[in-house]
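Project standup — Tuesday

K.O.: blocked on the structure for the chain from last sprint. Re-posting the sequence here as requested.
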Amino acid sequence: MYDKKMKQAGPQSRTPEQALAALMRLCARAEKSSGDALRLMARWGVPEEARRTVLERLVREKFIDDGRYAGAFVREKTRLGGWGAYKIRSALVAKGVDRTVIETALAEYGDSGTERLGQLLARRRRQSKPGEEPCKTKARLVRYGISLGYDYGTVLEEVEKTMNDEEDDR
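H.V.: unblocked you, prediction finished:
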């Protein structure tokens, strides 16, 4: 068992052909961005020039499509994670996706993320301690909304709605 872990821990060296085959298998199972593919090939020790050639072939054969990847990423992170545009944008930039592709994917999804933000804030509000001062609750909710990647104005608006809805329920 020790030897198996040691082999996995070391850098793997692959030829461009091996890298292409491995990336085709990976991309057939899950969406990958071009940045993901380049990072993997760098880790595998594939020369820079060969990385570009392999990536071009993967894109040409539709194994990698950054637009498709960004769209799936935006849908997943907004629906399941409740992420806002700022957090999604920075994550996609870190993945090596072009900014115009990111903006297109965010524009296609629209503004329905604010509804999800309202749900998340309401749930977080219900978890607050009984008797907590409203200003502390509000500050905690604002920090939470901003940590999800929403802009301050949207967070403040949704927090106000959540706080007002809670007061109306009493």
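K.O.: great, moving the ticket to review. Residues 152-169 form the longest helix (18 residues). The chain is about 75% helix and 0% strand.
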